[in-house]
Design goal:
Elements lengths: L8 E5 L5 H14 L3 E5 L5 H8 L1 H5 L6 E4 L3 E3 L3 H10 L6 E7 L2 H4 L3 E6 L4 E7 L8 E9 L3 H14 L13 H9 L8 E5 L5 E3 L3 H18 L13 E3 L15 E3 L3 E2 L8
Parallel strand pairs: 1-2, 5-9, 11-12
Antiparallel strand pairs: 3-8, 4-10, 5-8, 6-7, 12-13
Protein name: Mannose-1-phosphate guanyltransferase alpha-A
InterPro entries: Mannose-1P_guanyltransferase, NTP_transferase_dom, Nucleotide-diphossugar_trans
Pfam families: NTP_transferase
Protein backbone atom coordinates (compact mmCIF):
# COMPACT_ATOMS: atom_id res chain seq x y z
CA UNK A 1 0.00 0.00 0.00
CA UNK A 2 1.26 3.45 -0.87
CA UNK A 3 1.85 5.98 1.85
CA UNK A 4 -1.26 8.24 1.82
CA UNK A 5 0.87 11.36 1.34
CA UNK A 6 2.42 10.07 -1.90
CA UNK A 7 0.77 12.11 -4.64
CA UNK A 8 2.68 11.12 -7.78
CA UNK A 9 5.30 8.67 -9.06
CA UNK A 10 7.94 9.82 -11.53
CA UNK A 11 10.05 7.26 -13.40
CA UNK A 12 13.30 8.83 -14.61
CA UNK A 13 15.59 7.14 -17.10
CA UNK A 14 17.48 7.32 -20.38
CA UNK A 15 15.60 4.52 -22.14
CA UNK A 16 13.23 5.35 -24.98
CA UNK A 17 9.62 5.02 -23.94
CA UNK A 18 8.40 1.94 -25.79
CA UNK A 19 4.83 0.78 -26.23
CA UNK A 20 5.44 -1.78 -23.50
CA UNK A 21 6.59 0.94 -21.11
CA UNK A 22 3.60 3.15 -21.93
CA UNK A 23 1.20 0.25 -21.46
CA UNK A 24 2.84 -0.66 -18.15
CA UNK A 25 2.55 2.92 -16.86
CA UNK A 26 -1.11 3.11 -17.91
CA UNK A 27 -1.89 -0.24 -16.27
CA UNK A 28 -0.22 0.77 -13.00
CA UNK A 29 -2.06 4.10 -12.91
CA UNK A 30 -5.38 2.32 -13.23
CA UNK A 31 -4.44 -0.34 -10.71
CA UNK A 32 -3.16 1.95 -7.96
CA UNK A 33 -5.10 5.14 -8.70
CA UNK A 34 -2.06 7.41 -8.56
CA UNK A 35 -0.52 9.53 -11.35
CA UNK A 36 2.60 7.91 -12.84
CA UNK A 37 4.81 9.55 -15.47
CA UNK A 38 7.99 8.54 -17.26
CA UNK A 39 10.53 11.35 -17.71
CA UNK A 40 13.21 10.58 -20.29
CA UNK A 41 16.69 12.06 -19.94
CA UNK A 42 18.40 13.41 -23.06
CA UNK A 43 21.60 11.67 -21.90
CA UNK A 44 22.59 9.43 -18.96
CA UNK A 45 22.69 11.94 -16.10
CA UNK A 46 23.16 9.75 -13.04
CA UNK A 47 20.73 9.64 -10.15
CA UNK A 48 21.48 13.16 -8.91
CA UNK A 49 21.71 14.57 -12.43
CA UNK A 50 18.29 13.22 -13.34
CA UNK A 51 16.76 14.64 -10.17
CA UNK A 52 18.33 18.03 -10.84
CA UNK A 53 17.32 18.10 -14.51
CA UNK A 54 13.67 17.39 -13.67
CA UNK A 55 13.61 19.55 -10.54
CA UNK A 56 10.66 21.63 -11.76
CA UNK A 57 8.60 18.48 -12.27
CA UNK A 58 9.57 17.10 -8.86
CA UNK A 59 8.85 20.35 -7.03
CA UNK A 60 5.52 20.90 -8.75
CA UNK A 61 2.87 21.07 -6.05
CA UNK A 62 5.38 22.07 -3.35
CA UNK A 63 6.04 18.64 -1.81
CA UNK A 64 7.34 18.53 1.76
CA UNK A 65 9.73 15.75 0.74
CA UNK A 66 10.16 13.11 -1.95
CA UNK A 67 11.33 9.51 -2.12
CA UNK A 68 14.04 8.31 -4.50
CA UNK A 69 14.52 4.58 -5.17
CA UNK A 70 17.06 3.08 -7.55
CA UNK A 71 15.33 0.91 -10.13
CA UNK A 72 17.71 -2.03 -9.64
CA UNK A 73 16.82 -2.42 -5.96
CA UNK A 74 14.39 -5.08 -4.77
CA UNK A 75 13.36 -5.15 -1.14
CA UNK A 76 10.49 -5.00 1.28
CA UNK A 77 10.40 -1.22 0.89
CA UNK A 78 9.81 0.33 4.35
CA UNK A 79 8.04 3.39 2.94
CA UNK A 80 5.88 4.06 6.00
CA UNK A 81 8.78 3.63 8.40
CA UNK A 82 11.10 5.86 6.36
CA UNK A 83 8.48 8.61 6.19
CA UNK A 84 7.91 8.46 9.95
CA UNK A 85 11.67 8.48 10.58
CA UNK A 86 12.12 11.49 8.30
CA UNK A 87 9.40 13.37 10.13
CA UNK A 88 10.29 12.43 13.71
CA UNK A 89 14.09 12.24 13.61
CA UNK A 90 15.04 14.88 11.05
CA UNK A 91 12.12 17.20 11.74
CA UNK A 92 11.06 16.86 8.11
CA UNK A 93 13.97 18.98 6.89
CA UNK A 94 16.75 16.43 6.59
CA UNK A 95 17.89 13.79 4.14
CA UNK A 96 17.58 10.06 4.80
CA UNK A 97 19.48 7.14 3.26
CA UNK A 98 17.95 3.68 3.45
CA UNK A 99 20.62 1.39 4.86
CA UNK A 100 21.02 -2.33 5.35
CA UNK A 101 23.76 -4.52 6.80
CA UNK A 102 26.29 -6.58 4.86
CA UNK A 103 29.35 -8.61 5.77
CA UNK A 104 32.82 -7.09 5.46
CA UNK A 105 33.53 -8.49 2.01
CA UNK A 106 30.15 -7.53 0.56
CA UNK A 107 30.38 -4.02 1.97
CA UNK A 108 33.36 -3.20 -0.24
CA UNK A 109 31.06 -3.28 -3.29
CA UNK A 110 28.65 -0.64 -2.01
CA UNK A 111 28.48 2.80 -0.49
CA UNK A 112 29.42 2.46 3.18
CA UNK A 113 27.87 4.49 5.99
CA UNK A 114 29.34 5.31 9.39
CA UNK A 115 26.46 6.08 11.74
CA UNK A 116 26.30 7.92 15.03
CA UNK A 117 24.15 5.35 16.89
CA UNK A 118 22.34 7.69 19.27
CA UNK A 119 21.19 10.17 16.61
CA UNK A 120 21.40 8.04 13.42
CA UNK A 121 23.32 10.84 11.73
CA UNK A 122 25.72 9.88 8.96
CA UNK A 123 29.23 10.74 10.15
CA UNK A 124 31.08 9.44 7.10
CA UNK A 125 30.11 8.13 3.67
CA UNK A 126 32.41 6.50 1.12
CA UNK A 127 31.48 4.74 -2.11
CA UNK A 128 33.02 1.29 -2.66
CA UNK A 129 35.97 1.68 -0.27
CA UNK A 130 39.19 -0.24 -0.80
CA UNK A 131 39.28 -1.30 2.85
CA UNK A 132 36.51 -2.05 5.33
CA UNK A 133 34.75 1.04 6.66
CA UNK A 134 31.36 -0.11 7.93
CA UNK A 135 28.92 -2.98 7.56
CA UNK A 136 26.05 -0.52 6.96
CA UNK A 137 25.62 -0.07 3.22
CA UNK A 138 23.56 2.22 1.04
CA UNK A 139 20.44 0.26 0.04
CA UNK A 140 19.49 2.59 -2.81
CA UNK A 141 16.56 4.40 -1.21
CA UNK A 142 16.28 8.00 -0.01
CA UNK A 143 13.98 10.69 1.30
CA UNK A 144 15.01 14.23 0.44
CA UNK A 145 13.52 17.52 1.54
CA UNK A 146 13.47 20.21 -1.19
CA UNK A 147 16.60 21.74 0.37
CA UNK A 148 18.60 19.02 -1.39
CA UNK A 149 18.41 21.06 -4.59
CA UNK A 150 20.79 23.67 -3.23
CA UNK A 151 23.42 20.93 -2.98
CA UNK A 152 22.58 19.61 -6.45
CA UNK A 153 22.92 23.13 -7.83
CA UNK A 154 26.31 23.45 -6.16
CA UNK A 155 27.45 20.14 -7.68
CA UNK A 156 26.13 21.13 -11.11
CA UNK A 157 27.98 24.46 -10.97
CA UNK A 158 31.19 22.73 -9.88
CA UNK A 159 30.99 20.43 -12.90
CA UNK A 160 30.87 23.39 -15.27
CA UNK A 161 33.75 25.11 -13.50
CA UNK A 162 35.92 21.99 -13.71
CA UNK A 163 37.86 22.14 -16.97
CA UNK A 164 38.85 18.48 -16.63
CA UNK A 165 35.26 17.33 -17.10
CA UNK A 166 34.27 16.83 -20.72
CA UNK A 167 31.39 18.99 -21.94
CA UNK A 168 29.15 15.99 -22.61
CA UNK A 169 29.52 14.79 -19.00
CA UNK A 170 28.98 18.07 -17.18
CA UNK A 171 25.24 17.61 -16.77
CA UNK A 172 25.80 14.26 -15.06
CA UNK A 173 25.95 14.45 -11.26
CA UNK A 174 27.13 11.55 -9.12
CA UNK A 175 24.90 11.36 -6.05
CA UNK A 176 27.48 9.58 -3.91
CA UNK A 177 30.67 11.58 -4.42
CA UNK A 178 29.12 14.97 -5.22
CA UNK A 179 26.26 15.02 -2.71
CA UNK A 180 26.25 12.32 -0.02
CA UNK A 181 29.95 12.42 0.85
CA UNK A 182 30.00 16.23 1.36
CA UNK A 183 26.78 16.05 3.41
CA UNK A 184 28.16 13.43 5.82
CA UNK A 185 29.40 14.70 9.15
CA UNK A 186 28.57 18.36 9.63
CA UNK A 187 27.66 19.08 6.01
CA UNK A 188 24.59 21.35 5.89
CA UNK A 189 24.46 21.32 9.68
CA UNK A 190 24.47 17.53 9.96
CA UNK A 191 21.17 16.88 8.16
CA UNK A 192 22.07 13.50 6.60
CA UNK A 193 20.69 10.46 8.43
CA UNK A 194 20.46 6.71 7.87
CA UNK A 195 17.38 4.56 8.41
CA UNK A 196 18.43 0.93 8.76
CA UNK A 197 16.15 -1.86 7.61
CA UNK A 198 15.34 -4.00 10.63
CA UNK A 199 13.69 -6.87 8.77
CA UNK A 200 12.71 -8.09 5.34
CA UNK A 201 14.93 -8.74 2.34
CA UNK A 202 17.15 -6.65 0.10
CA UNK A 203 18.88 -7.47 -3.16
CA UNK A 204 19.93 -5.87 -6.43
CA UNK A 205 18.99 -6.90 -9.96
CA UNK A 206 22.00 -6.63 -12.25
CA UNK A 207 21.26 -9.53 -14.62
CA UNK A 208 18.55 -12.02 -15.55
CA UNK A 209 19.64 -14.47 -12.86
CA UNK A 210 19.18 -11.82 -10.18
CA UNK A 211 15.63 -11.19 -11.44
CA UNK A 212 14.70 -14.83 -10.85
CA UNK A 213 15.99 -14.63 -7.28
CA UNK A 214 14.15 -11.33 -6.71
CA UNK A 215 10.90 -12.84 -7.99
CA UNK A 216 11.31 -15.67 -5.50
CA UNK A 217 11.69 -13.15 -2.66
CA UNK A 218 8.60 -11.21 -3.71
CA UNK A 219 6.54 -14.39 -4.01
CA UNK A 220 7.58 -15.31 -0.47
CA UNK A 221 6.54 -11.83 0.67
CA UNK A 222 3.15 -12.25 -1.02
CA UNK A 223 2.69 -15.57 0.75
CA UNK A 224 3.28 -13.87 4.09
CA UNK A 225 1.33 -10.64 3.61
CA UNK A 226 -0.90 -10.94 0.54
CA UNK A 227 -1.82 -14.60 0.02
CA UNK A 228 -4.79 -13.42 -2.06
CA UNK A 229 -2.29 -12.52 -4.82
CA UNK A 230 -1.22 -16.15 -5.18
CA UNK A 231 -2.76 -19.08 -7.01
CA UNK A 232 -4.51 -21.83 -5.05
CA UNK A 233 -5.58 -25.36 -5.82
CA UNK A 234 -9.09 -25.90 -7.13
CA UNK A 235 -10.96 -29.22 -7.30
CA UNK A 236 -10.32 -30.89 -10.64
CA UNK A 237 -7.84 -28.20 -11.67
CA UNK A 238 -4.09 -27.85 -11.91
CA UNK A 239 -1.94 -28.46 -8.84
CA UNK A 240 -0.10 -25.58 -7.15
CA UNK A 241 2.98 -26.08 -4.98
CA UNK A 242 4.60 -23.21 -3.12
CA UNK A 243 4.13 -19.50 -3.77
CA UNK A 244 2.89 -19.15 -7.35
CA UNK A 245 1.32 -16.14 -9.05
CA UNK A 246 -0.54 -16.67 -12.33
CA UNK A 247 -1.36 -13.82 -14.69
CA UNK A 248 -5.10 -13.50 -15.40
CA UNK A 249 -4.45 -13.91 -19.14
CA UNK A 250 -2.76 -17.31 -18.71
CA UNK A 251 -4.65 -20.52 -19.43
CA UNK A 252 -3.24 -23.61 -17.72
CA UNK A 253 -4.21 -27.17 -18.49
CA UNK A 254 -5.98 -28.96 -15.64
CA UNK A 255 -3.32 -31.71 -15.68
CA UNK A 256 -0.49 -29.25 -15.00
CA UNK A 257 1.63 -29.12 -11.87
CA UNK A 258 2.88 -25.60 -11.18
CA UNK A 259 5.68 -24.80 -8.75
CA UNK A 260 7.43 -21.53 -8.03
CA UNK A 261 10.68 -22.90 -9.47
CA UNK A 262 9.55 -25.45 -12.08
CA UNK A 263 6.59 -26.10 -14.39
CA UNK A 264 5.74 -29.57 -15.66
CA UNK A 265 3.07 -30.60 -18.16
CA UNK A 266 1.92 -27.00 -18.27
CA UNK A 267 0.34 -25.24 -21.20
CA UNK A 268 0.34 -21.45 -21.22
CA UNK A 269 -1.52 -19.39 -23.77
CA UNK A 270 -1.57 -15.61 -23.69
CA UNK A 271 -4.83 -13.90 -24.56
CA UNK A 272 -3.24 -10.43 -24.62
Amino acid sequence: MWHPDVREILLIGFYNQSQQMSRFVDDMQRKYGIPIRYLQEYAPLGTAGGIYHFRDQILRGNPRAFFVFNSDVCCDFPVWEMAQFHSNVTGGNGYVILGTEANEQQALSYGCIVEEPSTHKVLHYVEKPETFVSNIINAGGYIFSPDIFQHLTRAFTANYENELIHDAARDSIDLHSSVLTPLAGNGDGGKLYVYKMNSGFWTQVKNAGHAIYANRLYLSLFKERHPEYLATNTPGGHEIYGAVRIHPSAQIDSSAVVRWYIRTQAFFKSTC
